[in-house]
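User: quick one, fold this
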Amino acid sequence: MKIMFRILRSLKKHIQKKIRKRNIDKYGSVGKNVLLQTTMKNISRPENIFLGDYVSLGSDIVMYATNQSKIIIGDGTIIAPRCKLLTSNHNYDTENLKSIPFDNINIVQDITIGEGVWLGDSVLVLPGVTIGRGAVIGGGSVVTKDIPDFAIAAGNPARVIKYRDKSVFLKLLQEKKFYRSIDWESLGGKEFINKE
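Assistant:
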């Protein structure tokens, strides 16, 4: 019985790997060593989504690009599960509004996420936003405006709380030491520190 479960598990992994490979080919571009844990069911217009090297996309991510808008994700960026990146919004507040609460017009704007950014769990990024390199966005935040380089932001709407150490970030960036570029197992695996 154990052998049967091992065979089934191995077969499942093999099928998932083939599906991921097929899905990677649908994106506008995909860098090296990219981890896609999300499915294509929540990705629109993948040909207008561009992923840098060492990018990690968690499970259940929604990325909504259109034929007139794109999503660009820089090297080394990690996007946690359940994040949403939306490049389109309904027209709800113009002089020529044709119906309420909104009409048939969609307003589209690109989303750009810089290098080495970390979006925590369930972050919502709205159209036209640029998140600067090295930024960290706290879980559950709603990003409605641009976030500067090295900023740590959180909330609804997301506001800058403080900034990361720029010199440390730039040194690691220059050395291309992204989380996904390091063999953590060879260094003893994941560490947990009780911060009091």
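User: anything notable?
Assistant: The first strand starts at residue 29 and ends at 30.
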